[in-house]
Amino acid sequence: MASASGGILNKKGKKSDRPKPRTIRMMVIPEPASNTRFVLRSANPELVAIRGQGNVRMICGNCGHPLAEKVKVVQLQSVVLYCHNCGAYNETLA
User: Fold this and answer.
1) Nearest by Cα to 49 from 90, 72, 83
2) N or C: which end of the chain has fewer CB within 10 A?
3) What is the mean pLDDT of residues 83-94?
4) pTM of this prediction?
5) Would strands 56-59 and 66-71 be described as parallel, antiparallel, or unpaired?
6) Contact of 68 with 61, CB cutoff 8 Å
7) How many CA atoms does the CB half-sphere of 45 hold within 13 Å?
8) pLDDT of 8 above 60
């Protein structure tokens, strides 16, 4: 819900400075050559590779499986996220 001043209102009707949550479908790339890129893989295939305190959810560009949740885009620059669900390598924003 938006306030008259254009801000976001929380459940109690008070203005919130939190940005609106958004989902980014990542770009699938070929498997990077060894030792050329930082590839982040979840230790547990059932969990996302990284969870933070931001407003962005990143999903696999191939199958839509969640790879990162509640992150800030600036946290994951030039990182490749591996999808255990389909085996795709996904590039974050540079």
Assistant:
1) 83
2) C
3) 89
4) 0.75
5) antiparallel
6) no
7) 5
8) no
Residue 83, number of CB atoms within 10 A of its CB: 24
Q: pLDDT tens across 9-59, in order? A: 556 666 666 678 899 999 999 999 998 999 989 888 888 988 999 999 999
Tokens of 83: 């999808």
CA distance 43 to 41: 6
70 within 8 A of 49, measured Cβ to Cβ:
no
- What are residue 59's DSSP bridge partners? 25, 66
Cα–Cα distance, 51 to 68 (Å, whole number): 6
> Residue 76: helix, strand or coil by DSSP?
helix
